Amino acid sequence: MNIFRSFRNFIADVTSEFKRVSWPTRQATLQSTGVVLVLTIAVAIFLGVVDVGLSSAVKMIIR
To answer: How many domains does the chain have?
Structure first.
């Protein structure tokens, strides 16, 4: 029975902590998501260009 009491206390603690959290607005969440997507795409393009460039350089050295 002690396990159930501990679990109940844990759930109560989690619930009280969630009430203290400052949740972002929908607009802030959308803006943050947009920034993450743009930066992810930019880094992917940069790494793709670097990969193609280095691959070409290695092929020229090997030949």
So the answer is: 1
Both tokens of 30, joined, read: 């959308």
pLDDT at 44: 98
47 occurs within a structural domain: yes
Q: Which domain holds residue 34?
A: 27-63
Tens of pLDDT along 35-57?
A: 999 999 999 999 999 999 999 99
Q: What is the DSSP letter of 24?
A: P
Confirm whether 8 is domain-assigned: no
Q: How far is CA 52 from CA 13, 48, 60, in A?
A: 52, 6, 12
Answer yes or no: is 62 within a domain. Answer: yes
Q: What's the chain's length in residues?
A: 63
